[in-house]
Specification:
alpha/beta, about 240 residues, 6 helices
């Protein structure tokens, strides 16, 4: 039995985005329901509307208002997430995977979860031919020790960003996989990070299809479910 995962996960495919803020809030609602025992451990998958999800620290920077306007000018809705990290951008060419699970001592494996899920998403991408690995890329946006990247001729591209929300009795592990159409994401990040005064290297922003042409969100979703299925029973 895998210590990080419940033996059974209920799969919830959200057919349409609820909106930038509502999608983030829905994850928190599910966390509350799972904590209270109203729902079992749940795996939620959806394709978001164009969104720039700012971190709490971003909101305290003097350029935050300008960054919000910059995201709107690019057609991305600004939102603020409860989990940590810096601004991240996503749209319909990405897959968001929210894993919500009850756990009595939810803080115990908090850091180890990042490593486990990084490995799980790496395996999923490798099954599609992506040369994927785990680790922070120098100059990446929303930097993290357990980012999932892909190797290509032009260097490393960040493909998966992860964040975690832990409450007493349950946790939410949220992952954004960039699969298709990376150009708009790169463009909005250039503008928002400039407004925030944060340095990064735009060459690190990419999508799985940049490395393996023809890769689709549907294919990545199937690969993620297959990777999960090797560990737990999906319902």
């Amino acid at each position: 039995m895998n210590r990080f995962l419940a033996p059974r996960l209920a799969v919830h495919r959200q057919v349409e985005s609820l909106g930038a803020e509502a999608d983030l809030n829905r994850g928190l609602d599910l966390l509350a329901d799972v904590k209270a025992g109203r729902l079992p451990a749940t795996l939620r998958l959806y394709r978001p509307e164009p969104t720039v999800a700012f971190g709490q620290r971003d909101t305290r920077l003097p350029g935050f208002a300008e960054a919000r306007e910059a995201s709107l000018a690019r057609g991305f809705v600004p939102a603020v997430r409860r989990a940590g990290g810096r601004a991240a951008a996503y749209h319909q060419g990405t897959l968001v995977v929210d894993h919500i699970q009850p756990q009595e001592d939810s803080i115990a494996d908090a850091k180890a979860r990042f490593g486990f899920f990084g490995g799980l998403f790496t395996d999923a991408l490798r099954s599609l031919g992506v040369d994927a690995g785990v680790g922070e890329i120098p100059g990446e946006y929303c930097p993290g020790e357990f980012s999932v990247f892909g190797r290509g001729a032009a260097g490393h591209l960040k493909l998966v960003g992860t964040a975690q929300r832990v409450v007493a009795g349950a946790w939410l592990f949220s992952s954004v996989i960039v699969v298709e159409n990376s150009a708009p994401i790169r463009e909005v990040l250039v503008d928002t990070y400039a407004a925030l005064g944060l340095d990064w290297d735009p060459r690190t922003a990419g999508a799985a299809e940049d490395l393996v042409p023809g890769t689709t969100v549907d294919a990545v979703e199937a690969a993620v479910l297959a990777a999960y299925g090797s560990h737990v029973q999906l319902a």
